[in-house]
## 1
Amino acid sequence: MKPRAFDYVRPDTAAEAIDLLAQHGEDARIMAGGQSLMAILNLRMSETKVIIDIGGHEDFKGIKVAGGYLEVGASVTQNELLSWPELAKTAPLLAKAMPWVGHFQTRNRGTVCGSLSHADPSSEIPLSLATLGGEVVLRSKRGERVLAAEEFQTGMLSTAREADEMMVAARFPIAPNLRRAAFREVARRHGDFAILALAAVADDDKSVRLGIGGLADRPVATRIDTTSKAAIAEALGTLAWELEGSDDIHATARYRRDLLRRLGPIVIEEAIACAA
Ligand SMILES: Cc1cc2nc3c(=O)[nH]c(=O)nc-3n(C[C@H](O)[C@H](O)[C@H](O)COP(=O)(O)OP(=O)(O)OC[C@H]3O[C@@H](n4cnc5c(N)ncnc54)[C@H](O)[C@@H]3O)c2cc1C
């Protein structure tokens, strides 16, 4: 299918992009990499009348370390972050999760903030943000607000972003105790969305922070007692039932819960075994 007719605007500055959002509200959408938005438009799942293209915009570029966070600007592509030389040392979980995001070609255009804004429950970047306890920065003409990952993503393809707000940056915590990290996912083919994705951070001697993507309608991060194998198995069993999941064309909820129980101990052990 082809998209409905829309106006295309390429703002010169960040301020102009925010002005356009304020002016058009629900009728407008930011386009970052277009890797998800174009599909949404082609399938006519959106009535968008104005596309505000910030792809590659210099005002939103920038990967910086500040205030205990790795801060990634709105037009930083997934491959730009992956090829940032400090990534593995600064944010090992992201370095392990990012190669699973789509394909080299989609990562060349797809952005980190675009993936967070799109809010697919199986996506690796929202899962990493939730597991690390990160936050996003939203800007509008009314000012700026910072939302924690769990406040931002409210469900499948749904977020707490207001129509006049733009995500200007994502902040991933980088404290030294977050460096023992592991990531695993199961998908039909590498590059497909995950049937189940797991991220683990061994930030404590007696427990691990585990993130689960692809089971609930959003990524879920929780603490797992790691004092014994039995404790891990019990926690994962309880979690599988709590998150429940649902069937879709890719897999049944039962299969996803089973993956959590089987893959969970592996990813947790991997995180614990990492050198700090
Ligand atoms: C073949 C293929 C395979 C893929 N596989 C995966 C995969 O395995 N894992 C995965 O996670 N993703 C996958 N994707 C999706 C890809 O990662 C997208 O890049 C990502 O979901 C959206 O990023 P984008 O920059 O392209 O955003 P866009 O497509 O431009 O935008 C997506 C949505 O976010 C909004 N948006 C974007 N940026 C902002 C912003 N700064 N502020 C406010 N709203 C904003 C847009 O308005 C739109 O609603 C795949 C895509 C393709 C085409």
## 2
Amino acid sequence: MDATKSKSLRETAAHVRLNALKAVVSAGSGHIGGSLSITDILTALYFHQMKVDVKNPKWEGRDRLVLSKGHCSPALYGVLAEKGFFPKEELKDFRQIDSRLSGHVEISVPGVDMSTGSLGQGLSAAVGMALAAGMDKVDYRVYAIMGDGEIEEGQIWEAAMSAGHYKLDNLVAIVDNNNLQIDGQITDVMSPYPIDKKFDSFNWNTIVIDGHDMDQIIDAFDQAEKTKGKPTAIIAKTVKGKGVSFMENVAGWHGKAPDQTQYEAAVSEIEAYLEEVRG
Ligand SMILES: Cc1ncc(C[n+]2csc(CCOP(=O)(O)OP(=O)(O)O)c2C)c(N)n1
Ligand SMILES: [Mg+2]
């Protein structure tokens, strides 16, 4: 990928981080840690990889995304608003009683392909969509993002088995490997390691990347597209809370909103980063 494109994606990701923070601080609640760990991946998907049409969100030929870790709606709503699926001003109404932007991801929001929030189910939905593409003879790709704690759920592995069995090469699963779940380190709760070998054994193509490096993210999507006869699993090594130093790798920021002072500190840090990227 050329340097200008990579720079522009990094700038966009910073704006998406600001959007996610805005939503969570306005609501006074929400899942910011795991939102910041997938922001770079979501930005690469919506601003580079996926075929979507903001004017026609339900276009049959669009690529689909299932955010299986549906508690991270601030990141998905943040990227969809940045892309223009709905006005950015709506983010301040996140989690309000009359808002369509609820705490977990809802299909009623323009640009959303699947309602999620009950962990463990999203990959099964994505497998169904990927199978449907073949049956309907429509050429689209399906992306599913799961948490590394989430993959402790058994249903994920039934879905993995069926995707391997049906050779769903239009399906890409991304594991947000931030090493933390709600109660702490994934290795202390129920280790899913080695994640790549598990997908490999279900007949998947597996790629391990740094989930904050735009070039590696885009490269992995390219490799997935070139892989025939197998689905691809991208194990993305990430940092929970990425981009806001005091939130990084701290389990306590899983589902907590910053107060006003913390919010302002987070915004200044991201704005300083933006300046740095712009040069
Ligand atoms: C079936 C189900 N069980 C429990 C929860 C509550 N819950 C929400 S987030 C979370 C932790 C998920 O950890 P991980 O998948 O690693 O997410 P991330 O680190 O990306 O936030 C839990 C247990 C849920 N949403 N669904
Ligand atoms: Mg996690």
